[in-house]
Write a structure and sequence with these properties.
Layout: H1 3-13, H2 16-25, E1 30-31, H3 32-36, H4 43-55, E2 59-64, E3 67-72, H5 74-87
Antiparallel strand pairs: 1-3, 2-3
Protein name: ArsR family transcriptional regulator
InterPro entries: ArsR-like_HTH, ArsR_HTH, HTH_ArsR_DNA-bd_dom, HTH_MetalResp_TranReg, WH-like_DNA-bd_sf, WH_DNA-bd_sf
Keywords: DNA-binding, Transcription, Transcription regulation
């Protein structure tokens, strides 16, 4: 994951409502109707948030009859977590220690 991909994901999850949706989905798969009951915004607003999360592969969805079920994509979230730890930790691969990033 590069800086641009990391920034896009961080921007996606930086919205407080999206963070709360992620928190809710960390307990397991939920239908949109169950997610919506926890918010005061409209169904179209929820659809917008879910679309943004889905476009960045933070969540995946599936149909179950008339319900749309959402779940977290832990592969993407774990990659983001690893990348964030990498760029905030002093390691030998830190940009300030590589030849391209080193200053004389």
């Amino acid at each position: 994951m590069n800086y641009e991909e990391t920034a896009k994901l961080m921007k996606t999850i930086s919205d407080p409502s999206r963070l709360e949706i992620i928190d809710m989905l960390s307990c397991g798969e939920l239908c949109a109707c169950d997610i919506l009951t926890h918010f005061t915004f409209s169904q179209p607003t929820l659809s917008h948030h879910m679309k943004v999360l889905e476009q960045q592969s933070v969540v995946s969805k599936r149909k179950e009859g008339t319900k749309t079920m959402y779940q977290l994509n832990y592969t993407v979230l774990e990659a983001l977590q690893s990348q964030f730890m990498l760029i905030t930790s002093p390691t030998d691969t830190c940009v300030c220690r590589t030849e391209a990033g080193a200053t004389a």
